[in-house]
Design a protein that fits this description.
This protein is of the alpha+beta class. It has five helices and four strands; from the N terminus they run H-E-E-H-H-H-E-E-H. The radius of gyration is 15 Å and the shape is globular.
Length: 140
């Protein structure tokens, strides 16, 4: 056992709770979003494209969640403030496949453990983040 560690992950029921909470918040805001809920490796568990949401937003939402899990739970919106004053990073890391450097991807945690992520796209980065945070809070 010393060569492995157990990994907890979001269940389908848990992912549905997150998605339902995000959809409820999106409905309150009156904006059509794409929402993707993933496991801790960034693989989708559930997703939804609300009626009228831009088709391209589905892939962006998935990549926001993937970005979060790929960097240990760091929200996607933390990237730009971190790299904005470093031109080499702006021009280098932004070529990383699937990396999103604006808001809308947030971690889903159970206690301190990363169990998944939610990515939201379709509004402004701020709107996307509000919906993602509402979804993630469903498990708190």
């Amino acid at each position: 056992m010393a060569d492995t560690t157990p990994t907890r992950t979001l269940t389908l029921d848990g992912a549905r709770k997150v998605l339902d909470a995000a959809l409820a918040k999106a409905g309150d805001m009156g904006i059509a979003f794409c929402i993707v809920v993933t496991d801790p490796s960034g693989e989708p568990i559930v997703s939804a494209r609300m009626d009228g949401a831009p088709r391209l937003s589905a892939g962006i939402a998935a990549n926001k969640a993937f970005t979060v899990t790929g960097f240990g739970g760091m929200p996607s919106g933390n990237w730009w403030p971190m790299i904005a004053e470093e031109p080499a990073l702006v021009h280098g890391i932004t070529h990383t496949p699937r990396l999103i450097i604006f808001g809308g991807g947030v971690p889903i945690r159970s206690g301190d453990e990363l169990v998944g992520a939610i990515g939201v796209s379709g509004g402004s980065a701020q709107d996307d983040t509000v919906v993602a945070e509402a979804g993630a809070a469903a498990l708190a």
